[in-house]
Amino acid sequence: MAYWEWSDALSVGVEEIDRQHKRIIEYINQLDKAIYDRNPGPITEIIKGLTNYTLVHFEFEEDLMHKIEYPLLDEHSKTHTSFKNRMTDYQQRFDAGEDISRKLLTDLRIWLTNHIKKDDQDYAPLLRQVDHKPWWNKALHTLLR
After folding, report:
1. CA nearest neighbour of 21 among 94, 100, 125, 124
2. How much is the mean pLDDT over the chain?
3. Which domain covers residue 138, as residue numbers?
4. Does any domain span residue 137?
5. Into how many domains does the chain fold?
6. What is the mean pLDDT of residues 61-85?
7. CB atoms within 10 A of CB 105
């Protein structure tokens, strides 16, 4: 059984954002499995992948919010920056030899759940309004490169 299962309660109703959130959850589940299996080998790569993917996801979200002129973009970006700093701290502590994997796992699940259910839900209605506009698919394609 996975550490964290995706549920519709986490959906923002925008396919690409939901897909990216699911991918972050997959990384979290991979980390949990490596910890459970007491297999430290893949933990380094999982943490690195999780950190990088999360940063790319934040950039993607912020680019979309900029395109739709989301009025709370600066505030949302600040929450991302705060979490980026936490992720960097975890990465540095891990690189220094500290076993942060279980704490990172717990923090990620709590933070991401709260962030999706509050912050991301705030901008999601604006994205859903433009989801079928002609420029939307072109913007997504450009951002996904």
Report:
1. 124
2. 88
3. 13-143
4. yes
5. 1
6. 92
7. 19
